[in-house]
Structures are given as C-alpha cells and as structure tokens.
Amino acid sequence: MQDRKLSFLERWDSLTARLTPLLTDEGKRERVQYLGVSLLLGFISLLIVVLNLVTHRGWHTYTTFGYAVLSFLNAFLFWRFGKRHTRPLSLLFILEMIGMFIFFIIVGKPEGFPTLWICLLPACGMLLFGMRRGVILCIVMFFILAFFFWVPLGQSLLQYDYSDTFMIRFPMFYLASFLLSILLEYIRFVTQRELDRLRDKYRFFASHDYLTSILNRAGLKERYQQIRRTGRQTVMMIDIDHFKDVNDHYGHEIGDLVLTETAQTISENVNGVVCRWGGEEFVAWIHVPVDGNALGETVRKAVEEHVVRIPNSTRSLSVTISVGVASGPPDSVIDELVKRADARMFQAKDSGRNRVVGEPEGGDQP
C-alpha cells in the first residue's frame, strides 16, 4: 500500500514538473487552457449524452453529442495549430460558446437546466480570454440574456415556458457571477504579475551579482556556453589591492561602493563579458582577438584614475588593481584560462601590486 502511495506521489510530482513550464509561460499557458477547457467540455458533453440516452431525451441527445464532437475538434485544433493561430481559434471558440448558449436559452430542455450552464461563462471567459476580452464577452452574453428574458420580441422566440420569476432573476444572478469573476480575475492578474516580477528578479540574480549587478560565476559559465567562439580568447583576472584596508578604514558600506564602481569601470573599458568572481576579484572574458596585455594596462589605469567619492563627505579615495592575463585558441576551456590568469594575478601582487602580468611575448601557446 505504501509503495502504491509513493508511486502515485512520484507520478503526480512528474506531472506537475511537466506542467509547470507550460503554465508559467504566457503563450503556452493560453494554449494549454484552451486545450484543457475544450477537452473538459467534450467529456462533460459525452457524460450528458449518456444521461440523455438513459432518460430517453431523443433529439437533445444528438445535439449534445454534436457539441461533444465539436469540443474534441476544438481541442485537436488548439493542439495542432494553437502555437501560431491562437487568436482566430479563440474567436471561433467564442462564437461556438455564444451559439451554444443561445441554443440553450431558446430550447430550455430538459426542464430549463441547460440554461444554467451559462453561469460558467464569466469564470471561463476571464480564464481563457483575460480581463478585457472576457469582460466584453460577458457583457455581450448579459445583453443576450436580457433580450430573450426581458424583451417581448426575444420572449416570443423561446420554445420553453420559463417562469416569470426565473426570467427576471436569472440575468441578475448571471450579473452577480460576472462581477465576482471580475474580482477573482483581477486578484489572479495582480498575483500573476507579482509572481512574474519575482521570477524575473530571481532569474536575474541567479546569474548576476546582487551588489554590482554584473554577472556572477554561474552567469559567466552560462554566457560562455551561449557565445560562439571563432577567434582567440583572452581572460583577465583582476583583484583590488589592499581591499581589506578599505573595509577596515572606511567601513563595509564604502567597501561595497568601491566594489560597485570598480565593476562599472572595468565593464566600461572591456568589450567582453565581466563577472564578479568572488570577494574583490573580477574576471573579464574577451571572446574576440585582442591584445590582452594592452587591454589589461588600460583597465589598470582606468581603475587607478577613478575617484570614489564618499557620500555625505568631502573625502574621496581611489584604489588600484593587480591583473593577470591569459589567452588561448577558440577551443580553450575557460576554466583553464582562468587558472592561468589567476596565477599571473598573484605574480602581479607578489611583485608589488598595481600592475599587469600578461602573456609572454607572442602569446600563450595552445
């Protein structure tokens, strides 16, 4: 029994894992919703067909079966063509729903019950078509109800003898359902918008450094996989000199400001990918041929000349960096380039800091 329960939970987790990417993508979610509602209406219609057969409802059985076939056809169309033709298919879906509900109103059999299905329209309309189109659809349906139940010409078209009380109160009940659906859709919309904002935020910080907003290690690796490399690569490992003294003397708030402005200065002078490697270390990856030694010197001078102004004070400070440079052919592994650049950066520190230890003359050999 326990094994069976675990098996069910595992299958449920697998199903939700497959559905989550579909339901969190706006375009895919719309297609899945149309597909799901069409299938649901089709199966409900088939169930009603069986009930009609048991209760001998005659021609009503055939009309319900026809709508079941139409619902399954809609599901097939959304599955097959929904990626590119969602709008025209959704318009067809709207016309089918309105036509079906008008048919239910006029016929009203058995015992007027089919008319009650109209109360599902506001919830389904908001879910499938969104606030704007859903409201328009529901307003159109309200005026259709008012025409058949409140206007003498519309009443003359009815084939079912509704009671006067029903014809007065049912449009008002539909209106209440409509207003409630608007409230629920607004809550869903606001909640979804906030979830989308948080999702984008966490996706950003999964690949970016929270403090400096440049890439982090994971972001660098991801970008490395995305960019096609056709020329010689260059990696610079950059470390802020005596950064601990900055934190000890000015405080961590000023230390964070130094990190942020140093990251900005490096990014402004490097036509490549810059990331915060950790602490006060940065990595710049240039995936096109470049003179790595000259670029490293340009970055070093730019950081040295940059003045960091301390907020709410007339004081300012500047920092220096030590840079290690490594290069390799297009098929070089970035981890290996970083390792070599890191070793050269430590050489720069050991030899006095505020300097660049670059490639040997002629460049690194593959």
List the defining traits of the structure above.
alpha+beta; 7 strands; two-stranded antiparallel ribbon; Alpha-Beta Plaits; single chain; 67% helix; 366 residues
Order of helices and strands: HHHHHHHHEHHEEHEEEHE
Largest sheet: 5 strands, mixed
Q: What fraction strand?
A: 5-15%
Low-confidence regions: none
Average pLDDT works out at 87
Order of strands, main sheet, comes to 2-3-1-6-7
Rg, Cα atoms, Å: 34 Å
Class from secondary-structure proportions: alpha+beta
The total count of helices amounts to 12
> Helical percent range?
55-70%
Distance between the termini: 61 Å
Number of domains: 2
Describe the structure.
The chain is of the alpha+beta class and 366 residues long. A hairpin with a 6-residue loop joins strand 4 (308-309) and strand 5. 27% of the residues are buried. The protein folds into two domains: 2-204, no CATH class; 217-357, Alpha-Beta Plaits (2-Layer Sandwich), CATH 3.30.70. The strands form two sheets. It has a five-stranded mixed β-sheet, sandwiched between helices. The model has no long low-confidence stretch (mean pLDDT 87). The protein is 67% helix and 9% strand.
At a glance:
With 366 residues, the protein is an alpha+beta fold.
Lay out the secondary structure:
Blueprint: H1 2-24, H2 26-55, H3 59-81, H4 86-107, H5 121-150, H6 152-156, H7 164-207, H8 217-226, E1 233-240, H9 243-250, H10 252-269, E2 273-278, E3 281-286, H11 292-305, E4 308-309, E5 316-317, E6 321-328, H12 334-350, E7 356-357
Parallel strand pairs: 6-7
Antiparallel strand pairs: 1-3, 1-6, 2-3, 4-5
Helix pairs in contact: 1-2, 2-3, 2-5, 3-4, 4-5, 5-7, 9-10, 10-11
